[in-house]
Specification:
Layout (H helix, E strand, L loop, with lengths): L2 H7 L1 H20 L4 H25 L7 E2 L4 E2 L2 H27 L6 H18 L3 H19 L6 H32 L4 H7 L6 H17 L8 H8 L2 H26 L4 H24 L4 H21 L3 H26 L18 H4 L1 H15 L5 H15 L3 H27 L12 H14 L7 H13 L6
Antiparallel strand pairs: 1-2
């Protein structure tokens, strides 16, 4: 494929890159007074990229025509499916940020630019077909994320979150690089397809160590147990719009990258990595569920909820089939909607002075003081718990069905049993909102943007969401098929 054809496949990334640089210059010249304008333009850019990518997802494109720059970049339906979720979640983050930062006088024009730069990295991550592209995308996303975590420079918690994220992220990057060097050393190539073919005749001991280190580094990025320790502290300390971003868009990119690495790069050695994924899945479900029970801060609780949900996503990956990957994508799409909706509620938890409230105890009696907010939050929580007839139930159902279909009956049973534990802390919050005496501390009003996002997320995960099952499942099937061309 010639250079012009390769460029045509990376148009969304070019649009994001050029827009980021132009907006960065605008932020430098115009200052923070232009932050609202820059945020609006950033959302328009993300919408344009969404439109550019959507046709490839609907068409289910795959094969040699989707490879750019000698196979280093895959513009297939799988990457496109992940990008659509990344663009949507990133756009939601930019929309809710001005109200939060403006209230404390901390809105900076650089915020939407940093989000766009992180999105560029995530786009490269999910399309990576080579270890070099994989690492460049990962680091571009991570560097922007470190700054976002510490965005409130005068806030001790934010600075602490940024420092913890940076130190542990650097450690994970080192682990990844070491694993990549081993894989390259024992296969002689950095190309995913080349590694797949090189390992098809057996897995050398050195390459096995490389596989373990690569998966360990990716486990940190998706906050899977036992590399989850950074998640509660960073989620709590980072500004809430940033936490919304971390819990959605980068999570999508990291999970999609993990699936691509497992199925494309190590697809010929499923029996080698499946036990690792099964352990991480079950451990994440249990640790996420148990760890959330004693939390008093709503953002820390949602951090453990994120760890818990990663466990369910990994069950789909453990199936190592097209149906398993498809189920994982369906669950991921539903999870993004539930997560954005939940964090929008957290952003709307303000006292009469407009100050953010994060204590779970402050939700007491919310159904009597702010009934609409309480009912919407209840729907988000019950959907996260997978309680029918909400759409979150469908995500868990397809993942468990894929595991059973792949012969992993015991894993499905254990996952279902462990999901009962996670339902406890979701129901606990609902009990506090509907049955405790009102604390009457949440009195602040929210703008139409927050209400609009909350309404959209609530409708999508309500029983009306089941109208999308056939359409979403078809898109996910086409996207998953793109990873199994060498199988």
């Amino acid at each position: 494929m010639d250079f012009a054809a390769s460029l045509s496949l990376i148009v969304p990334e070019l649009v994001l890159s050029v827009s980021s640089l132009v907006l960065l210059l605008a932020a430098a010249w115009m200052g923070d007074k232009a932050s609202q304008l820059i945020s609006t333009i950033a959302c328009v850019v993300l919408a344009v990229c969404f439109v550019l990518v959507a046709p490839s997802v609907c068409a289910g494109v795959s094969g040699p025509d989707t490879l750019a720059f000698g196979g280093q970049f895959h513009a297939d339906a799988f990457a496109g499916f992940a990008k659509l979720m990344i663009y949507a979640a990133s756009g939601a983050t930019i929309l809710v940020a001005p109200a939060f930062f403006g209230r404390i006088g901390a809105m900076r024009a650089e915020f939407p630019v940093l989000v766009l730069l992180a999105v560029v990295g995530m786009s490269v991550m999910v399309s990576a077909g080579d270890l070099i592209a994989f690492y460049i995308g990962l680091e571009l996303n991570s560097l922007a994320s470190y700054v976002l975590a510490a965005f409130l420079r005068s806030d001790t918690r934010s600075s602490e979150a940024g420092l913890k994220y940076f130190v542990l992220g650097a450690l994970a990057s080192g682990i990844l690089l070491f694993g990549m060097s081993l894989v390259y050393g024992f296969t002689g190539t950095t190309d995913f397809d080349g590694i797949h073919l090189a390992l098809s005749n057996g897995l050398p001991t050195g390459a096995m160590f490389g596989l373990v280190f690569v998966l360990a580094g990716l486990a940190f990025k998706i906050s899977a147990v036992p590399f989850h320790m950074w998640t509660p502290d960073v989620y709590e300390g980072a500004p809430t719009p940033v936490t919304t971003f971390f819990a959605s868009a980068p999570k999508v990119a990291s999970v999609a990258l993990t699936a691509r690495v497992a199925m494309e790069m190590f697809g010929s050695e499923v029996d080698a990595w499946r036990p690792i994924v099964i352990f991480a899945a079950l451990a994440s479900i249990i640790v996420g569920a148990v760890g959330a029970i004693g939390q008093s801060n709503i953002k820390r609780l949602l951090a453990y909820s994120s760890i818990n949900n990663i466990g369910f996503l990994l069950i789909g990956l453990a199936a190592a089939t097209a149906a398993g990957v498809s189920a994982m994508l369906v669950y991921l799409a539903i999870y993004v909607v539930m997560t954005v909706g939940s964090f929008v509620v957290v952003l709307m938890m303000k006292d009469e002075n407009g100050q953010q409230i994060e204590g779970i105890a402050d939700l007491a009696g919310l159904s009597r003081t702010r009934p609409v907010l309480a009912w919407c939050f209840m729907i988000q929580l019950f959907s996260l718990a997978g309680i029918p007839p909400l759409f979150g139930f469908w995500g868990k159902f397809v993942v468990f069905w894929a595991a059973v279909d792949a012969g992993l009956f015991a894993l499905a049973v254990l996952g279902i049993a462990a999901s009962v534990i996670s339902a406890f802390y979701y129901i606990k919050i609902v009990k506090i909102m509907f049955f405790d005496e009102p604390a009457d501390t949440i009195r602040g009003e929210s703008d139409w943007v927050h209400w609009a996002l909350l309404a959209i997320c609530t409708v999508l995960i309500s029983p009306f969401g089941f109208l999308l099952t056939a359409w979403l499942g078809n898109l996910a099937d086409q996207a998953a098929a793109a990873l199994f061309l060498l199988a």
